[in-house]
Specification:
Number of domains: 2
Number of helices: 3
Structural class: mainly beta
Strand content: 25-35%
Radius of gyration: 31 Å
Helix content: 10-25%
Shape: rod-shaped
Distance between the termini: 113 Å
Strand order of the largest sheet: 8-14-13-10-11
Length: 208
């Protein structure tokens, strides 16, 4: 009785006439992981342009020339960055490996890693008053609570025609004169963006 032969993986004919045993994309990624694992950081950006573009990127396993034993790699939408081991420099190249600049940053003191700023925050915070006195009150004191739409914000407050001053919530005032008053507060986020439309509260102290 003949023993059954172990199953063998099927072979496929690639467009160039060669025989392969699987998806060329998967095979290329495995090879890339073994040969130059640091270049795997580029793959998500190449995939954004489609599967065909990703395969094209994988064709050349060393598409960035000039990297001297890179210790750290970072990728953003504009290119690839790496630290050159022992040279005190940081290199840069386009996502397709072109325009390589091995000495993009010089005189770095033993760089071992790269970090990319995700982007510049230019959105100002929104300030909101959460507690305030009644519109008309006989009390010569006022207490305000407020908050910002962004964490780690700082605040500046202003009462009537007085100057803006740093403040925290709650902000208290006492010995207020009878009459109309206007309280304003504006937030500044961690990036330095100032709320252009400060929150305000109008109230009137009635003489008792």
């Amino acid at each position: 009785m003949t023993e059954p032969r172990p199953a063998e993986p099927p072979l496929c004919v690639d467009l160039d006439g060669t025989l392969i045993d699987g998806d060329t994309l998967v095979i290329s990624v495995r090879h890339l992981a073994r040969s130059t694992p640091w270049t795997l950081f580029v793959l998500p950006f190449a995939l954004l342009r489609g599967r065909a573009n990703l395969k094209g990127t994988l064709v050349n396993q060393s598409f960035v020339d000039g990297a001297t034993k890179p210790l750290g790699v970072a990728v953003d939408a504009s290119g690839i960055y790496w630290a050159n081991n022992g040279t005190g420099t940081v290199g840069h190249a386009n996502l397709d490996g072109s325009a390589v600049k091995p000495n993009y940053i010089t005189e770095a003191r033993a760089p071992i890693g790269i970090a990319i700023d995700a982007g510049v925050d230019t959105t100002p915070p929104q300030t909101r008053i959460t507690h305030r006195p009644r519109h008309k009150t006989k009390v010569d004191r006022a207490r305000f609570k407020f908050r910002s739409s962004e964490k780690r914000s700082t605040f500046r407050c202003k009462l009537d025609k007085k100057k803006w001053r740093s403040c925290t919530s709650p902000r208290k005032y006492k010995h207020l004169d009878p009459g109309k008053h206007v309280f304003k507060v504006r937030a500044t986020d961690a990036a330095g963006n100032v709320d252009p439309t400060p929150a305000r509260a109008k109230f009137k102290v009635i003489a008792s």
